[in-house]
Design a protein that fits this description.
heterodimer; A: alpha/beta; five-stranded antiparallel beta sheet; five-stranded parallel beta sheet; flat; B: alpha/beta; six-stranded mixed beta sheet; 6 strands; globular
């Protein structure tokens, strides 16, 4: 009988031990040894010798002995086995009588591991949801920068967020963050939990754009093997953001204009009219007016999308925002590349502020990413910041920043002449060429500055 | 020089993903894992630390049993049994998620209901995440009533302040020895 009990307990991964009123071990099942972190299990050992972590329960356990068949449970205590796996134990103390205490230990790993997996997913979802909601309502406040121009962007977002029926046109150079502003308008609106659908008109072949935007029905064209919702339908109740609207094919423009005016459209190949209610934000870095005059963009559509327009400022117009954004990017890349870069040296800051950033934030991001990868110091230095100048005007621009207390122009001139003479080993003709001066002018200045 | 050895049980409490397990791992094993793994139930670790008594003549060795308890959604019998007999608590919040600080006071009250004379400290973990950003520390601490005098910022990732947190709590736990 005893044997049967042992087998059953073993199958159920349960072991037991019995302690006396002094909490000394008096009996145990053979498999109990696997529940303790000891090599030898001797009769007479104290409960706290076997489970030191339970020292704080002595009072509770002694109290159990005063009442028969009372239990005290410690569930889901997880331990790491030799292979690094988590195993879960449930401990139940039960008073058999006033002199005997039964401790049963069951390995609940099978059930608990499944429970842990569910908990893991639930918690990950909760954390993701938290981070999503934190970028919602006040996300426009989180647009980095304190310059006057960016403050006006934030004010604009706040003002138009709930103007749901009005079409918005965002203009500005490439990389200024038009998508970020469009998303911030959507997130700041009452409908932030509705879909935000984005379409870059330049990335879809013109032949597919109509179907992408309005959807199609089965058989509408050769590859239309089933009905497909368009992005306008997907955005119903929310916002559709059409980036690079200037690239919208002329053939699709009348249908889009008709939709803007009536909120109704037909899927490609369908006769059934559908109604969609969504906010429309468009963006372009093109001069749409000149596109209109060159007959590349319909004039009526231009006026229809240009009800409220806003120009997103270029990075070079944002003064010290460049440094704020750069520092934020460093904190992002610190995480990505497991680095602890604390910021920039003064020289590096000057270099960032002195460049005109024709590629705007996109270009700044790439430059900081490269600098973060190659920087091995606490701070990014000017030589870590590699700017690939493609603009010839930018290439010839001298790398000079006038300090707040001013400079002596004469000293600067003298310094350049001295450097040119050093470089040309005193050859005045070559030095004059380097400085783009005539030989006479150079000689005059050498004499003037007593070089 | 006299040597005193005592055992103390402390509990780590706080919402999901605030870094309770990471704090313990850093303190006990000096390790840090980027990957988030939710704790189910409780994980118990122990570490012995040496503290000097006020008389400077003797040392106290505190064997800490650290109960890293999963995020508590309801204080049922299972949870109360985990808390029973604890001498102290570290209540952890995540400074990158200010909402996690808002439940700190409630957690403390529930803990003190089970262990009314226990000591405690509050920890704002993940200070490394705001190293390069503007962060209003006072505003964060203000979310925890009575938090100001017991609050520490720390980072399990970089190890910043970890030893100090546990030592600080231990010093509170041995107050009786020091005053006696």
């Amino acid at each position: 009988m005893d044997n049967i009990l042992e087998v059953l307990l073993d199958q159920q991964k349960i072991s037991y031990a019995i302690f006396d009123q002094n909490l000394e071990l008096i009996q145990h099942s053979p498999n109990f040894i696997y529940s303790v972190e000891l090599e030898n299990l001797e009769i007479g050992l104290l409960l706290t010798d076997l489970f030191p972590e339970f020292f704080s329960f002595e009072k509770e356990i002694m109290n159990l002995l005063k009442t028969e068949k009372q239990s005290f449970k410690i569930e889901m205590v997880n331990k790491i086995d030799e292979d690094g796996n988590i195993i879960y134990f449930d401990y139940i103390f039960t008073s058999l009588n006033s002199n005997k205490l039964l401790l049963s230990v069951s390995d609940s790993s099978e059930y608990s591991s499944l429970k842990q997996k569910i908990l893991q997913q639930q918690n990950e979802i909760k954390i993701l949801k938290e981070s999503i909601s934190s970028i919602n309502a006040d996300s426009y406040e989180k647009i980095l920068g304190t310059s006057d121009v960016i403050i006006s962007v934030k004010k604009f977002i706040k003002k138009v967020a709930d103007l749901y029926g009005t079409t918005i046109l965002l203009t500005g150079e490439s990389g200024t963050g038009k998508t970020l502003v469009a998303r911030a308008i959507h997130n700041a609106s009452k409908n932030f939990s509705s879909p935000f659908v984005e379409l870059n008109c330049a990335t879809i072949p013109s032949t597919l754009l109509e179907s992408e935007l309005f959807g199609h029905v089965k058989g509408a064209f050769t590859s239309a093997v089933e009905n497909k919702k368009g992005l306008l339908e997907e955005a119903n109740g929310g916002t559709i953001f059409l980036d690079e609207i200037g690239e919208l094919p002329l053939s699709v423009q009348p249908k889009f204009l008709s939709f803007l005016e009536s909120k109704r459209f037909r899927r490609v190949g369908s006769t059934k009219e559908l109604t969609v209610n969504c906010r429309i934000i468009t963006a372009t870095n093109k001069d749409l007016k000149s596109a209109v005059s060159q007959k590349e963009f319909r004039e009526d559509l231009y006026y229809r999308i240009n009800v409220i327009s806003f120009n997103i400022p270029a990075l070079r117009e944002r003064d010290n925002d460049i440094l704020i954004i750069a520092k934020h990017l460093v904190s992002i890349f610190n995480k990505e590349f497991n680095k602890c870069i604390s910021g920039f040296t003064n020289k590096a800051e000057k270099k960032l502020l002195n460049y005109s950033w024709p590629g705007n934030i996109r270009e700044l991001r790439n430059v900081i990413e490269r600098a973060a990868i190659f920087c091995d110091c606490e701070k990014i230095d000017d030589f870590d910041i590699v700017i690939n100048v493609t603009d010839p005007e930018e290439k010839n621009k001298p790398n000079i920043l006038i300090p707040p207390d001013g400079i002596s122009f004469e000293n600067l001139e003298k310094e350049y002449i001295q450097q040119a003479l050093i470089q040309t080993e005193g050859n005045q003709t070559k030095a004059a060429k380097l400085l783009n001066l005539s030989l006479d002018t150079l000689r005059y200045r050498i004499k003037k500055f007593n070089i | 020089m006299a040597k005193i050895e005592i055992k103390k049980k402390i509990c780590l409490l706080g919402g999901y993903g605030v870094g309770k397990t990471s704090l313990v791992r850093r303190f006990v094993y000096n390790k840090f894992e980027e990957k988030y793994l939710s704790t189910l139930g409780v994980h118990i670790s122990k570490k012995k630390i040496k503290l000097r008594r006020n008389d400077n003549d003797s040392s106290i060795y505190v064997e800490l049993f650290i109960w890293d308890i999963a995020n508590i959604e309801k204080f049922d019998l299972i949870v109360n049994n985990y808390l029973r007999g604890a001498h102290g608590a570290i209540i952890v919040s995540d400074i990158s998620r200010p909402k996690t600080a808002e439940s700190s006071s409630e957690l403390l009250n529930k803990f003190l209901k089970v262990n009314n004379n226990a000591k405690y400290i509050f920890v704002g973990n993940k200070i490394d995440l705001i190293a390069n950003t503007e962060f209003d520390k006072d505003n964060f601490v203000s979310k925890i009533p009575n938090g100001k005098s017991h609050f520490h910022f720390a980072s399990a990732k970089t190890g910043e302040n970890i030893e100090a947190i546990f030592s600080n709590l231990c010093l509170q736990l041995i107050e009786d020895f020091n005053s006696g």
